[in-house]
Specification:
GO terms for molecular function: mRNA binding; structural constituent of ribosome. The protein is α/β, with parallel strands linked by helices. The protein is built from 31 helices and 15 strands. The strands form four sheets. It has a five-stranded mixed β-sheet with strand order 6-5-4-7-8, sandwiched between helices. The chain has a five-stranded mixed beta barrel with strand order 11-12-13-15-14. A three-stranded antiparallel β-sheet has the order 2-1-3. Helix 1 crosses helix 2 (about 15-25), helix 11 (about 170-185) runs antiparallel to helix 13 and helix 13 packs across helix 14.
Length: about 750
Amino acid sequence: MTIEQQLATELSIKPAQVVATLALLDQGATLPFIARYRKEQTGALDDTQLRQLHERLGQLRELNSRRDAILGRLREYNQLTPELERALVDADSRARLEDLYLPYRPKRRNKAQEAREAGLEPLAQAVLQNGQLPTAKLAQYLNPEAGFADTDAVAEGVRQIVLEVLSEDAELIGTLRQRLWQQGEFQVRAARGKADPESKFRDYFDYAEPVARVPSHRALAVLRGVAEGTLKAGLHLPDTLAGWPEEQMAKRQHLRPSQLDAWMQQTLQQGWQKKLRPSLETELIKRLREQADAAAIEVFARNLNDLLLAAPAGAKATMGLDPGLRTGTKVAVVDATGKLLDYTTIYPHAPQKQWDQSLHALTKLAQRHGVELIAVGNGTASRETEQLAQAVCSALPQQDLHAVLVNEAGASVYSASALAAAEFPDLDVTIRGAVSIARRLQDPLAELVKIDPQSIGVGQYQHDVDQTRLGESLDGVIEQCVNHVGVDVNTASAALLSHVAGLNRTTADNLVAWRDEHGALRNRRQLLKVPRLGPKAFEQCAGFLRIRDGEEPLDNTAVHPESYPLAQAVAATCGLQLQTLLQQPEQLKQVDPARLEAQGYGGYTVRDVLAELEKPGRDPRPEFRSVQYTAGVETLKDLQPGMALEGVVTNVTHFGAFVDIGVHQDGLVHISQLADRFVSDPHTIVSSGQIVQVRVLEVDAARKRIALTMKSNTDAAPARAAATAATDRRSSAKPAAPTPVKGSLADKLKAAGLGSGRR
């Protein structure tokens, strides 16, 4: 089966779609460009399908590369038989390849090799054929010079050869691996001296579960406990399969149980317990980790997607407040474009307690610069600072001010970065943080792309999973989000531009430099004047870059320049100038797509262009909205069972959803409490950033645990549901939950598992 055929089968798409996509990728096309502008060739594969194809393509090409390397080495040493070559060519996984190559892999000198060199191979072969040790012949193989001075040493040498033969049998390894994965138990216990009843891993001190069914969050929790030395974990077959591995080992040598003597039975037991089981255990726990990583990374990617696509508050003058106590609250005012206008530091809280002076200072700043929004960072003293911001809003009713809590995770990383230093070389890092908070409210996407997503915090266990895979996945999410929304080429930062399809950091920097020297771009064709931005890069990026109020109206839409003739044809069909059509989109009702297709335009392209002309330059992100926390409910002490509250989903996991209800500690809606019906996947009910109505089931103030429900009827066994929620919550080993966030970032800007403490 070719790579193209395998990809088509695995992804349930047509081989022609795979062939076309691979051709585009090999020509240097980017995934966002292919997804949006090459639907005719790919059969309208969407971004998710393309990313799956691209990822799997890399895996299969890596597999083929390893296969070629093994075949080459075996040919070099004249070890390749026709049967082995067929088996290697047919191998469909890395594990199968390595199983087949294992007997031929260069290895260090071992006891089996020493025994062979001492001439014990014939004895070992006799044992494998007969299932018994020929004790009468052992004395004939004594070799004191080689270390085999007595019959016990000879017998042990024979055993080492037999064990090596068994442990390098590819078919046997495959059979045992499959059974151990399908029916093996993942058994966990406390490490010696680590059974602390207060440990966060206490639920795993006596835990067992079929390995193939261990949820990702539970696997990562256990593996974290193992890494910290608190837990011990292993894989074991159930008692019902006792002796089964040894039977399979004998079967591979065509031996019946009745043929085996006690010595051979002991050898087979050693082969399983000391050779095969430990190596398979290591391999399968690695597989468990990889699967858990993949599931967790998928959740992290969803959370980051919601974070980046949070509703922007828009181009409004905004005041950013970075709350603090002893060192004061840092204040920065930016204009509608994010340009810094003013900054200061106030001390409204203890120990200075300059509340009135701080209120006066903020009021004057808000008046001077026409501030419309106040963004309050959600770190230390955030709720107290929010009260101050609300006081400013009350003092200036004519300005229609609104105060919004904003997640500040990662702001300190940005403020200390080279990027921030280049933009604000003379500004204190803490003031830079206030600027970032203000800009996040205006446009989360434009500001958050300046920060390494792994510094933002995208979920629990993010530092436990494979960092390379996590980074690649999150980078892909950023690319997808940036190109989904589109970028204003004349105002975007180099950090934002660098994620546009076809651009990189060098071309993005060059574009900003060209813009600074020559002024705003007036049309997309001017992109070709940017150094190192050639025709191929232009093809990839042009459709995602917007030019507002430029010479060409279509430059402010997602219509690609190659489709401008189609857009002009649409306008001609309506009997209007293109500019007029964009102002009167209702005229598009008279357009017959079939006629345009008859002129040679692709059906997918026609539909996309018509949709864009109907709503030119539309922002696909949701409308700005803030969550309304219940007044007077600010701490766990304010909560009571049965209380109805509004909150925002901060993290969706496999066992439920965490919800911020404004008390500095997220509550958990267990999967069993998400709906009145059975729920198998929480993502089908809620998503990060969604505003939801919940009721309090139980509050454990000592352990800072809040059990919530979204069911319409909460009278049914609330205590049992709360207990179940608490158990799974402990299983997640979830760190302290984030502090609350409002506004656009209450909708989505506080995606799953963001750190709760000061940045």
